[in-house]
Design a protein that fits this description.
alpha+beta, about 35% helix, six-stranded antiparallel sheet, globular
């Protein structure tokens, strides 16, 4: 009986320490979807209108591996500067998780950012695009899919220039930052 109690005690301790207290990116999206400082929406991969574009077999494979894009944007105003700093720090802490591997850093006239991914290098499950600007706010885009191949994804990004993206579905995002 002592052995069973000890085993159960050890199992409970291991279970307690194996649970992560770090918030996941998915939890962050859900927690802030109703926050008035944020704009949150999902975009289906069909929005890209890639059916009309001539794709190579590799690009078609990359496109069919895409499921959807989750967008979460925080608009900075003169009234929410403190919240902006806190939310930006929270996002950066989540993205420092070992789960995410950095693909590239961005530094543009619009602001700074990074592109990270999770999954295996030859079978990516999630790509996270993060960018911030101290005067506008920040944006997180999660590109979700199944076994996305980085080389094929890069080719697919190049063909996006040829696609006819439906701008009406992006008007809410553009309007959010221009208000």
């Amino acid at each position: 009986m002592k052995v069973i109690k000890r085993s159960l005690g050890i199992a409970l301790v291991l279970l307690f320490f194996s649970c992560s207290s770090t918030q996941s990116l998915q939890e962050y999206y859900v927690d802030n979807s109703e926050n008035p400082n944020f704009l949150s929406f999902d975009l289906p991969a069909s929005l890209l209108n890639m059916n009309e574009v001539a794709l190579t077999p590799e690009q078609k494979k990359a496109f069919t591996s895409l499921k959807k894009l989750n967008v979460l944007a925080f608009k900075k105003t003169k009234d929410n500067g403190t919240a902006y700093v806190a939310e930006k720090a929270t996002v950066k802490a989540i993205l420092k998780n070992d789960k995410y591997q950095e693909l590239m850093k961005l530094n543009t006239s619009y602001g700074k950012g990074s592109i990270k991914f999770s999954g295996d290098e030859d079978a990516i499950d999630e790509v996270v695009i993060y960018g911030d600007s101290d005067d506008k706010g920040f944006m997180l885009i999660r590109v979700l899919g199944d076994n996305m191949n980085p080389a094929n994804l890069m080719q697919l990004i190049q063909t996006l220039e040829k696609s006819n993206v439906d701008g009406k579905q992006l008007e809410s995002l553009i309007g959010f930052f221009n208000k």
